[in-house]
Write the structure tokens for this entry.
Amino acid sequence: MKDLLRILIAPLMWLALFSAVYGLHGLLCNLGITSTALGFPLPRILLVVAYVIAIALQGMLLLLLYHPRIAARSPFVRHVSHVTGWTGLVATGWTLLPVVLMSNCT
Amino acid sequence: MKALERHRKLTAIWASEPGIRGWFSTVNHTDLGRMFLVTAFFCFMVGGLLSMLIRAQLATPHSAFAGPEIYNQIFTMHGTIMMFLFAIPTFEGLAIYLLPKMLGTRDLAFPRLTAYGYWCYFFGGAMLIFSMLFGIAPDGGWFMYPPLSNAIYSPGINTDFWLIGITFVEISAIAAAVELTVSILKYRAPGMSLDKMPIFAWYALVTALMILTGFPPLILGSVLLEVERVFGLPFFQADLGGDSLLWQHLFWLFGHPEVYIIFLPAAGIVSTVLPVMCRTTLLGHGWIIAAAVALAFLSFGLWVHHMFTTGIPHMGLAFFSAASTLVAVPTGVQIFAWIGTMWKGRPELHLPMLHILGFFVTFVIGGLTGVMVAVVPFDWQAHDTAFITAHLHYVLFGGFVFPIFAGVYYWLPHFTGRRRFFHLGELAFALVFIGFHVTFLAMHWVGLLGQRRRISTYAPEDGWTTINLISSIGSFILAIGIAMILIDVILHALTASRGRRNPWRASTLEWAMMTPAPAYNVASLPHISSRDPLADDPDLAVRLARGKGYLGDPGKGWRETLTVDIASGRPDMHVIYPANTRLPILMSAVTGVFFLSLLLKFYWTVPLAILGVAALAWKWVWGLGLRDDPGMQPIGHGIELPNAAAVERSPGWWGTVFLLTANATFFGSLLFGFAFLWTVAPGWPPPVWFAASPFALSIGLFGALIGPIAMRLAVRKNRRGGSAVPAFVVAFLAALVLTISCSTMMLRTPAPSDHAYGATLFVLGGYGVFHAALAALMICFLVARVLHGFTSPARRAELPIVGLWVDYASIIGVIVLISGHLPGLVL
């Protein structure tokens, strides 16, 4: 089961982070926050922080999957878990990129 | 013992009852796989006939072929049948038939569950198809959007048929998904580690896990909409705190993964058949598996791309647009791996290969139009036009039907043991290919010219007449092609001469047995040391028939197999299967009475049906287990294994884990719905909050805490040879307290029909009551088992299973109670 978890964990984390940031965006829009901090709208800052945290978490997970103590013994599982680990990282970077590019609640 | 004698003995042990009686009592995966496939193809024919009616209607402007009311039923049933009664059951049937054979075992993990799933599918499907015969079929489109589908705008019984019938059929999908997941992870030949597992099994595993997490949101949505229609709880009514967009979220949380649930098994067929047709091995095996996993997860982040026109903020749209474009990458990895496989091999244009080529062309076009509609501004233009209908047909027909036809022709010699003689199939393929592209290329075109989907007619001045006529002609060519495939297959099954084993010279284990396959699959189980066992060990089939593998001695008269460690494939358990029984069909019939009672509003029979299901479930599990300690079981080659009754992580424990995964997704969807309504729906806050009761909350939380502790004490007591009954009594009382606490929440909630807040709390409370009561019932069952001598320190498998249910009931009980009481305490 641990080997299966190694394969599934990174995309699973992407799904959780993606849903969390989408939920946060919905919540911020619903609350109608208009205040600013450091000259930027507060919702934007919160979303960018969430984006950075998401990428950092996914990056750490990828490092863990490469770590000799965590990585699978089976070369096959190791290879597949590395590919899915990279998938998680790239998917997080790409699918949450709109937080720095798009208008917030319009 | 000679091979023939072994064959006769094994057949006597494993065979189903002869004749028609066997259909009702069989629990054998080969029989049930065939029954699934035949029923699914019957539904395919019905759905196909409906599509011809649609095209007949649209062939000319102002057509009087069918009025709008009947036309609505026709297109709704076409979509419903193809998605729910053809595509998913075809995957289930193929996987149920093939997987034990490919994995080198004798049956799936829970044979009676396979049969129960089939009969739920049969009865649920029959319910839907009969509704059509009486002219009361669902008519709100296959995704049944409210407010159109609510009781105000669809007052008849039509929508109820959809909501209740689909929920009934989905029991079958969940049952199959649990069955397949446990079977793939545990029921493999010794030595078959994860890297040696056949590629089809990987795809089936990913698909089964997707069904477990993708279908519960739809089941929840259907339950909520039916409850709204019947009892007036306003989950989707904007004026009472509900939101019709909640339905769209729940539906597409299921609906988009559903596309990949349909595509991935077909990709598994392509990955299995293509290397054989090209006389080589699959290029990029590990990359393909990683791509399938990535595709599965990404598909859960795409659901909003079906809702681009609902007014969601731009940033939200961009998230899902980005995810939708990203999904093309793992799909592309698979496509390029398949092209590379063809490049490195020597492709032979047998009939399965023709269908695979048809798949490539069609699916790639469908994928490209998919990228087009993933781009928001384009989607705004094309949404709800015939362009979308054409796109989804390219994806689903290209991505599923062509590969299924490839699979049918590839495994036909396995199903029948015969050699193809008539060659209608090649002509049929040409007609299907040409007919399909004529029909749906034209439909893209007319969609771009502005024809909306689902319209029953149009005017000549719209300028769509010629294109629609071309499309209709194409559809009839397509229908003729499919009819010819059907005739070809029937002729093959009835008249072709006996063929040799493994006609394709394939390397997977399903070809290591007689064809058609005997009820026991293989006379002894192989030891696997490579991914291509038949290629690397050509004598394997003969050795297995001679009983040289594991469990080759049928002397005990048991239906027995073994399970393995998930990662390494090391044997870890000996399993004895139950025999043929009519219990599954009986239980599915009683389940059907429950659904039919709801449909026809005979509410007095609902509790009777629930009691009937509970009684049959009790009988179902009572028949398992042993009254004596089984001891270590010899499996051959000097290896002895514990019996499944004598371990803590038995097959039942694994099945429970995955069933609870689906259940937790259902509960998670309910919580999502609650949060969605609270934050997004108009009409909030509610006029009155739930009056929190610290006492009811405290005793509920206390019950939720004590139950799992008592169950753990019971497990420990039993393991040490003491009496577990006192701990069971405490666990039972704790479950009872939790039931009462959730019940009071249900009873004290603000009037559920006045606002979505009260309605949601009522359903949450009901969910808590059901699970706490179920846990209490299971503890009673365990007490009865202890008193009848079914448990001992060695025979301990049943306790952890009930422990899982008690844990689950406690966790959700806590969440339910806090969700109900906390706002009242804080606000």
In short: Residues 68 and 91 of chain A are 25 Å apart (CA to CA).
